[in-house]
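Q: I'm writing up a methods section and want to include an example of the input and output format. Could you take the sequence below and give the corresponding predicted structure tokens, formatted cleanly so I can copy it straight into the document?
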Amino acid sequence: MKNMRIFIPVLLALILSSAAILGTKTPNQVLLGVYNKMNKVKDYSASARIKADIPMIKALPVNAKIYFKQKNKFKVESKSIVILPKQGMNDFSATISDTNSYTAVLKGTEVLNKTSVKVINVIPNSDTADVILAKFWIDDINSLVMKSQLTTRSNGTVVVEYFYKDQKTYGLPDSMIFTVDVKKFKVPKGVAVDIQKTKTNTATAAKTGKIYVRIKEYSINKGIPDSKFK
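A: Here is the clean output for your methods example:
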């Protein structure tokens, strides 16, 4: 009877352990969960406040209007010059939509902003793709991208942190922080550049800059004509 008392808890632990192992999602399944949530959004428009803090660039915060429509139509409208990288706003869906074009690898788990996340590398199968490596930190429970890192041949590395509030159901953030590679970042035409800062010793100059985006007043799945993106 004593051995039986020991055996039952051990057997239960083994069963629970096996169930956990069998229930583990593959990296592709984790990515698909996020993709399916985002796919609920056929289109949206929203108001944005964009503030750039990038060495050598003089720029005041600007107000803008953001438009998105499947598949991968994206536009930013503003009366001022907007400093915003193309990567980060819509790169997840664009990167993983074709499962034959990449290999997904689970790199482990981390705690990000008090949330347990899975870290997944997405490696393109083509040597000619602009994206060299995509890395996503994903809240698998809620199917949300908490952070992304996109390394491209054309624009270097862009890291984006995503923060959610009212539109978690659709996987749409209410704020984002971009960290960009200053050396590779393409300055929009018409943006004032601080000549004095460009003379700063490159050894001491900042290598990254940040762009802060706050988004509100989402209008989701109300219909946006294709002409808006021309």
